[in-house]
Amino acid sequence: MRIVCLNCLAEFKFDSTRRSWIWVLRQPNGGFATRVGDYSRRLDRRCPNGCEIDEEILDYPTTVIGFVGESASSKTHLIVSMIYSVMNDPVLAREWSIVPSRRSTKMLAALENTLMNRQAIGYTQKRGYVGAPAHRQENGIGPLGAPQPPRPPLPQQQTQHAWSGWQVRAPILIKFTSLSTRRTVNLAFVDVAGEDVADAEIAAKVSPHLAVADFIWFVVPSTLNKQYLAMMREHANPANEDSLSNSVEHSQTVGRTKMMIDQIAKLWRTANSYPLDLPIEPPRLHASTIIAKSDLLSLINLPEVGIVAPPVDWADSPYSLNGAGNLYQPGQIDYRSDATRSLVRKLFPAVDATLSIHFPHNRYFPVSAVGCGKRADNTYPVFKPFAAVDPVIHMLNRIDHLRVDR
User: Fold this and answer.
1) Could you say which of 21, 132, 268, 383 has the lowest number of CB atoms within 10 Å?
2) Are the CB atoms for 168 and 134 separated by under 8 Å?
3) Per DSSP, what are the bridge partners of residue 26?
4) Positive or negative, the Cα torsion across 265, 268, 271, 272?
5) Strand 215-221 relative to strand 286-292: parallel, antiparallel, unpaired?
6) Cβ(216)–Cβ(263) under 8 Å?
7) pLDDT in tens, 108-167
């Protein structure tokens, strides 16, 4: 079982026969090798480097998921909305037990309450150097819920990482257990601001979890094409007027998005000793793209919109069992993904071209984290996510440990 320490990012396995850690090493050809360590204190819940770790990480394999997008892309809203949706979905409840880790519970509850009260979550700002690591609070949350740098593992052993002194984002850890197979996996959701990746060296320090990511999700707003944004503003309804008039919220451009994708590919290749001339493909890394704020797509007239976007009156329509817009079935999810790809190639084809160069197996998913636009006072008329569960189903279907035939 592969174990990832979410503090120092060491990758290792525990050999129950030898009572030793087996370290996972990266190789220049993109493959893996291992070496046996002499560390066997498994029960004190510390990794081979001495970091405190969640007990769930020792018991079950961990899949690291990186979400990359600019501050105004609704990325943080998206992560919280996805986790809230899967934990409260009546269909998934028949198949999965979904439980947040002890360390993540308080942070997740605070973020969920913000959205449930129809309040906007603050932007994930660009991170910088803050000096020597400070002691964080016991719940791992600093002022306004900002994650703090990792706590030194032991008083006598000051582990210095490449990102020491930088503001590092703490993942949200969720445990998924299949009710049919009884197999369990941890999903670690990592929030990465797109502005951080303008410099690959800085990105490696403030977003080190991307180096060991199993899934990367690029979050691209539906308003990237400014010509279509103008059309959306012409046809805006009361639920979206304030949001569409906010120039900062829709400031992300095609050029910056292409740079973001290119820098993430560079960072991942370098960190994993992956050949520059090879495309990044599964199973080493699964890359997908979420078209965020998909409710705004209903304001433009293109054939794919009826498949990809919620109805124009989504924010006003009554909630029903499948009112969250999820398809659940892999075949139907793939069909909507193909329709979304077709739409992306019309709205911002240059972004699709850049994704295809680095990640040829990239899939697209339309999601609206809240279901409507944000008002001028940073509140929402409703909280009604659209299609927030389908990306999680897509991931679960691609995790080998959960498959019955493994």
Assistant:
1) 132
2) no
3) 32
4) negative
5) parallel
6) no
7) 999 999 998 999 887 554 544 444 444 433 333 334 444 444 433 333 344 444 444 444
